[in-house]
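Newbie here. two chains, one complex. Structure please?
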Amino acid sequence: MKTITQFNKTGLILAITTVLCSTQVQAANWLMLQGTEKNDQAPRAKVWGFAQIDYQQTDDTKLKAGPGIGQSAAFNQLAPQLTNASGFNIKRARIGARGANFPLDKDVNYFLMMEFGNNGITTGGKASQGQLTDASITINKIPGARIRAGLFKTPGSEESFKGIPVFNYVNFTNGTGRLLVERFFTNSSGDTARKSSVGAVRDTGVQIFDSFKTGEWETSYAAMFGNGNGLALQDNDNDKDTYLYLSTEKAFGKSKGPRSHSMKFYAWSHNGKRTIDGTSGHKLDRAGLGATYFDGKYRAAAEYITADGMIYNGTTGARTPANGGTFSVLKDQKADAYQIDLGYRVMPNMELNARYDVLNSATDSNGDGGATAKRVFTTTTLGAQYFFNKKTSVRLNYEIRNIDAPNTPASSAVHTILDSIDNRLSAQLMMVF
Amino acid sequence: MKKLNLVKLMGFMFALFTSLPSNAAPQKEAPLPDTFAEHKIVLQISDNNPFKQTLVLNVAGNLQRYYGADNVDIEVVAFGPGLRLLFDGNVNTPRIKILMDSGVRFSACENTIKNMAKKLGHRPELQEGVTNVAAGAGRILQLNAAGWQVLKP
């Protein structure tokens, strides 16, 4: 009997191992593309990177009401400085190296990258143009449980998790920009600047992950445990964050890489705690689910995100810090956001895009700020991309932007302030090397 | 293409001498393939460049399509850093299996295996169906002398 039991156990393990055979994934699987290298093919060090040169412009409509009446509106200025309403910007300029440090051993690989552009990563506190964004080592020794440790992108929303070189728009959606790209402040109100780089959907910690092929589908998982302190290399409190991710993807044909043809479904969660106003333990929870589709001609994506706990709340009266505006964070609130994104390749090297996104911020009437704190951000983005080649592209976006305060009395100046928001025109030239 | 130019010959000779163990007795050559194919080609992969791995497999497949699988005899000889192509689990394993099934032979340099074993602490596991030859460069010269044309993509 004992022998039979042992046999059954062995058979079961073998069966599971066969079915869940860890695979070298070729689809747009960000866990694998960012965290692993091709078996026995990776060089010792592949130097690579990308640059994005932006031009963005609004009408620079001044605030129509409130304490900053007649002054520049923060939401009509270009991030991260918020000092001008139009201009060129080297938004991202990243260089890094990745590969197998000991090429004979396919079980170890690494990923290093730095940011030299002008954005939230390189501004705030002691951040500088030359900011480490990624420094990770992956150990692939255990079948079904690869281990990645260090600083790297956290598994989550497709919009933030995907590689920036294949991002189809110039700017993030409201949901990603305000809920997922975390800003760090010392206090929940009164701060005139961030205390450090934005989190850039990265964290320092350890992740267990892998991908399995079952028929035509690739199913991937990740569980990460991190500091919850963004790009900072060390923690600032004793609270840790957990990240969970699950996706399943069907590849179409033999296309490979980040723009491969596939259909994907995914869900994720992020649970963390933060220190602000001198106290720790403030909840910062996020979760989402979504789907993507790309067959080479048609592209579609949809995602829904929820947020619970700390939520970024912009500047007071929509004023810029230079004009007395201060940043605020709602420490205990809720939010949800969704987006629908469509693309159509009119030619193999030209894609038309349309994206509609909504962020319902501060939806908990019992939360910080009460019912009147609720804001609804709605943006419709029309865009076009032209691909000079696989590594060089240009994109043009026009964002039709609107912010409402549905629970604020009609007589409130808030409505007039929010009415100051402009549409935004942006163009971006990007190259990957 | 049948005659190696002087530079290539010197390169092969250098690779041959450096890949042979010093003070070693001459090793027995592997037998020549028994083939009636009209075209006989040996492909060399000795490069660390990952693109070369893909390229050498592309060339093997393209030659078979161009001449017809029955009209061309192809042997891929891997040595030095290029041996990683034949490691068990290499990302190209499915393609190599298909080429093997269509008649392409893959040879691995035993000298390189021994050297890598010293660095790894164990012999690298190679894919099923790969034949070990005493010296990769020597195998190329042996085949070339017997009428195989040498290509290093």
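Moderator note: The interface with chain A takes residues 48-50, 53, 81, 84-85, 87, 89-92, 116, 119-120, 124 of chain B (CB under 8 Å). The first strand of chain B starts at residue 39 and ends at 45. Thread marked as resolved.
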